[in-house]
Amino acid sequence: MYDKNNIFAKILRGELSCRKVYEDKFVFSFYDINPKAKIHALVIPRGEYKDLVSFITKASIEEIIGFFNGLNKVIEKLGISDDGFRCIINNGHNGSQEVPHLHFHILGGEKFGRIV
Ligand code: AMP
Questions:
Q1: Does 99 sit in the ligand 1 pocket, CB within 6 Å?
Q2: What's the predicted TM-score (pTM) here?
Q3: What is the tens place of the pLDDT at every residue in 14-71?
């Protein structure tokens, strides 16, 4: 069940401020408040999806394509397409997801050590 009072839902509704990176019909993106890299943005779908599993199983094809198009716009806007970046999704309890609205972490501006 989606919690309409989660922090990112409030940002989407304009009830909380953020440092916006990009927005369109399907996607909203803003800088992480506690950055873990020189560049650290979050990219979220406008739809009410609590996690990646929910998005994959419930979103329409239009939303899924729209989301990835928007994600690419964010990467272009951040200027990290060529140098590269890391994309992280924490999903659910074992993934240590804190905010229950699907978000892609986009980290860039520096080289990261390998995790996997
Ligand atoms: P996760 O652990 O994957 O759920 O990540 C949640 C992320 O949201 C963390 O990196 C937080 O720093 C970030 N965060 C929490 N509140 C805000 C906020 N108001 N504005 C921007 N980022 C936030």
A1: yes
A2: 0.98
A3: 999 999 999 999 999 999 999 999 999 999 999 999 999 999 999 999 999 999 999 9
Q: Find all residues with CB under 8 Å of 3, minimum gap 6, and list them.
A: 9, 50, 100
Q: Are 30 and 11 in contact (CB under 8 A)?
A: yes
Q: Indicate the residue type of 41.
A: A
Find out whether the beta carbon of 91 lies less than 6 Å from any atom of ligand 1: no
Burial of 44 (0-12, 13-18, 19+ CB in 10 A): buried
Plot region of 51 (φ>0 → left; ψ -120 to 50 → alpha; else → beta): beta
Domain annotation for the chain: domains and CATH numbers: 7-108 (3.30.428.10)
Residue 21 to residue 43: CA distance in whole angstroms: 9
